[in-house]
Amino acid sequence: MTESSGGPLELEIESLSAERFAPFGEVIEASAGRVGAGAYPIDVYPINDGGALRRDHVAQVDVEEGGGRLRVSVARAAPRTLPLLVEKLERHPLGSQAFVPMTTACFLVVVAGGVRPPRARELRAFLAGPGQGVSYRRGVWHLPLSVLERETDFLVLDREGPGENLEERALDRPVRIVLT
Amino acid sequence: MTESSGGPLELEIESLSAERFAPFGEVIEASAGRVGAGAYPIDVYPINDGGALRRDHVAQVDVEEGGGRLRVSVARAAPRTLPLLVEKLERHPLGSQAFVPMTTACFLVVVAGGVRPPRARELRAFLAGPGQGVSYRRGVWHLPLSVLERETDFLVLDREGPGENLEERALDRPVRIVLT
Predict the structure, then answer these.
(1) ipTM of the complex
(2) Of B30, B59, B145, which has the smallest distance from its Cβ to A153's Cβ?
(3) Which of A77, B5, B69, B150 has its CA 20 to 30 A from that of A102?
């Protein structure tokens, strides 16, 4: 994060990994390893007579708070371009929310920890690559779906049910997301 | 479906559509329509200040029978080639099962209606194109994940819990799936 006097904060994009994203939720992705290779990572197992490798529990779907239930949707998102100016974030206090691209795509994941309104200095930005989705833990501040390059369809897993499940807050200062 | 004396039945592949697939489950896909076009199909609505179109309830997740719950997984599948000889199908009597490709892919969907063991003459074969996934209704006979072209990662939504949720049955006669 670098600062230009008076203007927006600049935030560099990190590549997305399960470890880096752990404070905010899960990265939905296959384990490394080719089908039929013989030796598999500990978190996968072969299915379909060895024709596929399966990894379970890639996202913690948390949607039952306050009488909620799972909703499975598709969102078609228009592409955004870098650098991107972020002035507000949103969060869903009653449920997790997962996004998985349905075609080969890169998308931008911008998050902040904590329950109180996010501050510009606390943001992190990640680039999700082909074959990666994310699940935001319940209540995590994030930027709405921001795909790069081209219009892309995403599978969305989130909560529907009673109660107000959307909060939006302006940042104390805009943040410019840049790819270095 | 054509018959060659004594050998397998030949079954031609249809393109996948919601209407054709309705007896077996749902096609998971966006509605036609570009983001920002102004006029939208009746089943979608704009989100994110107009930056995306969302379509809800694209799959009926039915996993609670017998104390079951949702399991979110990723399966990495090795490609299969056409023509493909199908000698058995499987079904999950306790829950629905959905597959959504996470990169641009085509996969083969082979299904049969009814509860009793499937017969070769009853099979239908569909080609799911880029941006399409499927959800098999509980108990629908189907061929395991069969992607074409290249190794592909799929998001899988199905049931985990007590009870035996896998049944496999040989067909009365093999079926050769062909692309005409």
Answers:
(1) 0.95
(2) B30
(3) B69
